[in-house]
Amino acid sequence: MDKYIDGVKKILEKEIGEKVNVAKPPSPDFGDFSVPCFTFAGKMGKNPEKIASELKDKIKKPSYILKVETKGPYINFFIKRDVLVDDIIKEAISKGESYGKVGSGKELILVESPGPNTNKPLHLGHLRNIVLGTSITNILKNQGKDVHIVNVVNDRGIHICKSMLAYMKSGNGKTPESEKVKSDHFVGDYYVKYSQEEKNSPDIEKEAQELLIKWEKGDKKVLDLWKKMNKWAMGGFEETYKRLGFSVEREYLESETYSHGREIVLKGLKEGIFEKDEEGNIVADLGDMGKKVLLRANGTSVYITQDIYLAKKRYDEFSFNRTIYVVGSEQEHHFRVLFAIFKKLGWSFADSCKHFSYGMVELPEGKMKSREGNVVDTDDLLDEVTILAEEEIRKRWKGLSDKEVKERSALISLCAIKYHFLKFHPRQNFVYNPNESLAFEGDTGPYILYSYARASSILQKAKKSGKSKNMPGDAEIELAKKISEFPAVAKRAADNLNPAAIATYSFQLSKAFNEFYSACRVIGTEEEASRARIVEAFRITLRNSLNLLGISAIEEM
User: Are the C-beta atoms of residues 162 and 194 closer than 8 Å to each other?
Assistant: First the structure.
């Protein structure tokens, strides 16, 4: 529809000599698009309603415009129904997987996600991080950006030492294989054991600190255990990533980077960028944000020092145009400070770094309990929702084999979770209710998948050629118009880094299709072939939209 709007804008801009804005009317009764005339009043010195009336009579109507009307200060344009629908369908079908895509550009973007700790499995916060990170990566790639997912694994420090200490005390040579436990959960179980022991014996923390000192000094036994437990943890993460359809292109280990920021800080001190405080710490004076310690008086670095080094290392490796840090909203101050330090250092990429902040996910009380009592593991949630999906599928479709039920429940449960996590604005906190997310009606992933499967079923039966003798009806027109919105929605989602815009669009598109399905029979009508084409255009568009969310479409439910 953009080409029709652009054509009318050119005609009006030539007539007025001023930029023309276009609005979407609140109802189809007021046309396919409108031009408000308020902004012309100053230049033309007339009432906006009079301007609208005069312009309507003056302009030459393009061949694709059915009629032009005015309503108060608005000029309303109606596109010829057959032209509109046919052009939209042609574009979607001819472009196929490329519909809504922009050609490749030169911008290279890094997306940092999900930043796990190796002392326990991925939790609900990591799940939201991965789902958001995947979607914004897909959305940006769709706009022709060269996007790479990078990850920082927090594989050192007191937390992993706590898991190690508990294993040293009660592991007795057990392994994930011997206990038939997923490897990251095996490590996490020992972190839970440590936490329980700490409640009864607070002195155990001193032992964990001593273990950390041994690690820092390179004690062979400690290092060997650390390597073994990290391997277990990271192997488990990889299994979860694979299940979610997530992959990392470049991984950075905290153990390999935590000490490297020292050189940058010491050089900054020498050059007068940083200073020493009264206690001998090296600090960055950030004005209103206060003074931030970068290197302690005893020579040890703090967490932000590693982030400073990593940003420089990544820039040297990738020469990125942008870096997007997908990290929870509780770290907002950390990133304000970090980016201010980049500026203080005079780094050219300082303004190209963005904290993609997101809110908390909670579960309805009593729905699921974690082993720690406060954090739910990603794997446990995936398992729970898959079981619920399986139960629903067995109720609805009784003739399916066990294999079909397993395959479909895996896809439907993933869609239910991902869609529910993405339909909220990233900064919004929300409560995730597994049962609600699996509903087959309303604003849910399964409803959207069902719409796609319904379209696939129609196309398997429909005639592939033939012409309609009748003009398209209202439901066809509304569906075609919704299909035509996809490229603009995809661009807006990329500009605003907002996957919720794609989720909302996917639901609205599915709704428009189901309204069309109720109003317009496809199989066995004179319009079978032409209506099958709009079904095909819908199916292509919805699949492309779901791809941006990291959701796989399904041919049969």
Answer: yes
